[in-house]
Amino acid sequence: MTQDGTDLLSQVFGFDTFRPGQAEIVRAVASGQDVLAIMPTGGGKSLCFQLPALMRDGVTVVISPLIALMRDQVRGLKELGVEAGALTSGNTEEETNAVWQGLHAGSLKLLYIAPERLASSGTERMLRDAGVGLIAVDEAHCVSQWGHDFRPDYLRIGALRRALDVPLAAFTATADAETRAEIIVRLFGEADPQVFLRGFDRPNLSLAFEVKNQPRRQILDFAAARKGQSGIVYCGTRAKTETIAAALREEGHSACHYHGGMEADDRRHVEGRFAQEDGLIVVATVAFGMGVDKPDIRWVAHADLPKSIEAYYQEIGRAGRDGAPADTLTLYGADDIRFRRQQIDEGLAPPERRSADHGRLNALLGLAEALGCRRQVLLGYFGEAAEPCGNCDLCDAPPEVFDASTAVQKALSAMLRTGESFGAGHLIDILTGRATDKVRQRGHDSLPTFGVGTEFDAKGWQAVFRQMSAHDLMRPDPDRHGALRMTEAARPILRGEAGISFRKDTMAATRHRPEARALVAEEDAPLLAALKAKRRALAEEARVPAYVIFTDRTLIEMAETRPQTLDALARVSGVGAKKLDRYGAAFLEIITGDAPDAVHPARRKLAGRAAGDLFDRLLAVQQDLSRGEDGTGKYLSCTHSTLKQIAERRPSCKDSLERITGMGAQKVDRFGDAFLDVLRDAG
Ligand code: ADP
Ligand code: ZN
Predict the structure, then answer these.
(1) Domain range spanning residue 493?
(2) Nearest bound ligand to CA 9?
(3) Is the confidence at residue 463, as pLDDT, over 70?
(4) Number of the ligand 1 atom closest to the C-alpha atom of 40
């Protein structure tokens, strides 16, 4: 066994390589250091405690906020042949008994517990008796009082760590510095964890923003181009989740809505369907989130602007966790910006928090109005440098920009001359010279700014105002509903000390129907469809979600590389020993078009390993010699499991060869030299 866990990585999990950042984290956790790892959603956090759990003695306790999430992980681990269990309120008595048995026998490697359990007095004693060697905390930001995922029971984890006196590894996808500091204080106290923060890029996610113009149509078009693929549409309001879901169904999609106002049972029903079904669209508020770890979500669309760049990143990050291509689209407009600002201003957070929230919203708006590669802007926010990505709408079609300094000055002057007391509509009337009743009543038709903005029509000015908001040149005044105020950031532009560029192409309404994106090349599509059908059949039979069998990414690799043997199949990412054993033959049959040669189970266990090759050569040698050198001797052969052991243990002399079960002196006499030759050749 290697120190870095790569053996287990390929044997148990079926992955050839670590994802960026995983190797260091696994090494640190496995060696017993306290760790806080901030990794993007879909970056592969679970592996960073699951693998060390297998490398370390004793049981690893995993604290995770959601029962559904725990059950999924336990199920996934069992599929991989790992002993794992959960103690949650949702357990059947049978499940709970099995967990206790595993604990007593010392065979359980991962024990998932719900945070509520920490409140019960017996838990600490139980864990101490169980020989816990490591605590892993998933979604560690739940300990932060300021996040919307706050879980009071998470505050007990620090005490548990001190009581058990074992290393703790905490994981989260939330990046901002305040939350990070809070996690460290609350979970680690005086201990000083090693912090890993990196790898925010999710290159398989395509990024796109569109200004709202016919928002419902925009969402429907986006979904139409991805028909049959699982997706999420995030909406700002509960009511909208219902209307968009209905509109999607009308266009022939399988879609349902989800929001926090629904009965718990109904919500669970949707969660269950989403996990289980291929190609369901869930139209939801952000209440649909943390519990979603379906790896094959192929797209996420925002029908409304998220509240911050972190929220955006987390929400789009739910797509494409399996690493296969996934698309995202975020719609926004002036109303969204106003709504989000007001939400922050009217919230209960203390002032410094509020100003940080405005900053996070600004970062998102900067991304929305970006003039170059969106990924560069997004990663730049997380402190990572990157090249233009080639996988965002702005890389596809670089935006047209214009010098907006004069337009901005005119707008600011209209705002200032009317006492910063009006909203965009009235200011645009003034700029375009529309003498409405309101304009005349206030005498605004005699202002010097009246009618100076003839270069744009009202729609054009709305786009200017939207971009001004997005660049935080003005904000709605929380004390005067809807009234726009200039910000400090605008002053240099007003004075002519600084210029600013805006996008021209988003000024007029243009619509381009997004093209459908295929997951594989045309020639591989029929095979991928056949593999998916097989997966669905197996999933239904086993009553598990399709991805529990294999993820999309694994099927895509199968369709593209078309392995012809079990050994080749074992090299496909996501095909571990257990799954190869269970499903390999079925999928190979789809790929090769006929039933594979029957493979002895002992040989199947070696598939994809160097020992598999050795086994084949030993088998060939033994067949040649089964009646001796001259072909006239008594028939002798070794069993498959004997050959398997030889291939695995690689004895170097006849004595040790003879000690292998099933060999014996006679067989050593017959095959010994030839076997040892094979083993020597293999180095
Ligand atoms: P998150 O960080 O969001 O918790 P998960 O742990 O659920 O992400 O991992 C996301 C997906 O990536 C899962 O399907 C997992 O099996 C897969 N994965 C994790 N590590 C690797 C790896 N080294 N190679 C390939 N796939 C991986
Ligand atoms: Zn790009």
Answers:
(1) 401-517
(2) 1
(3) yes
(4) 2
Question: Residue 276 has what pLDDT?
Answer: 85
Q: Which atom of ligand 1 is nearest to the CA of 547?
A: 14
Pocket test for ligand 1, best of 46, 70, 300 (most atoms within 8 A of CB): 46
Q: What strand order describes the sheet that includes 59-63? A: 84-87, 110-113, 59-63, 132-137, 168-172, 35-38, 194-197
**Residue pLDDT, tens place only, 384-438:** 888 999 999 999 988 889 999 999 999 999 999 999 999 899 999 999 999 999 9
Shared domain for 47 and 186, answered yes or no, is yes
pLDDT per residue as tens digits for the range 640-674: 888 888 988 899 888 888 888 888 888 888 999 99
Say how many domains are in the chain: 5
Residue 445 sits in the same domain as residue 561: no
| Rounded CA separation 55/3 (Å) | 9
Mean pLDDT computed over 280-295:
87
If asked whether residues 220 and 186 sit together in one domain, one would say no
267 C-alpha vs ligand 1 centroid, how far in Å? 25
Instruction: State the average pLDDT for the chain.
Output: 89
Q: Which of 495, 517, 539 is the last residue of a domain?
A: 517
DSSP 8-state assignment for residue 398: P
| Helix residue ranges, H only, 488-524 | 491-494
Ligand nearest to the CA of 579: 1
Ligand index nearest the alpha carbon of residue 206: 2
466 and 386 assigned to the same domain: no
Query: Distance between CA 639 and CA 662 in Å, rounded?
Result: 7
In this structure, are 247 and 331 located in the same domain? yes
CA distance 300 to 206: 10
Could you tell me if 329 and 434 lie in one domain? no
Measured CA to CA, the distance from residue 325 to residue 524 in angstroms comes to 15
Q: What pLDDT, in 10s, does the model give residues 212-240?
A: 989 999 999 999 999 989 999 999 999 99
Contacts of 501 by beta carbon, 8 Å cutoff, 6+ apart: 371, 401, 402, 403, 404
Q: Are residues 655 and 641 part of one domain?
A: yes
Q: Which residues does a 6 A CB cutoff place in the pocket of ligand 1? A: 15, 18-19, 22, 39, 41-47, 293, 295, 321-323, 551, 573
138 CA closest ligand 1 atom index: 4
Atom of ligand 1 lying closest to residue 18 CA = 23
Task: Answer yes or no: is 603 within a domain.
Answer: no
**216 and 277 part of one domain:** yes
Instruction: Please tell me the distance between residue 375's alpha carbon and the centre of ligand 2 in angstroms.
Output: 5
Question: What is the pLDDT averaged over residues 429-454?
Answer: 94
Hey, which residues does 485 pair with through a beta bridge?
Answer: 475
Domain end position, chosen among 396, 417, 444? 396
Q: What is the pLDDT of residues 186-209, one digit of tens each?
A: 999 888 899 998 778 889 999 999
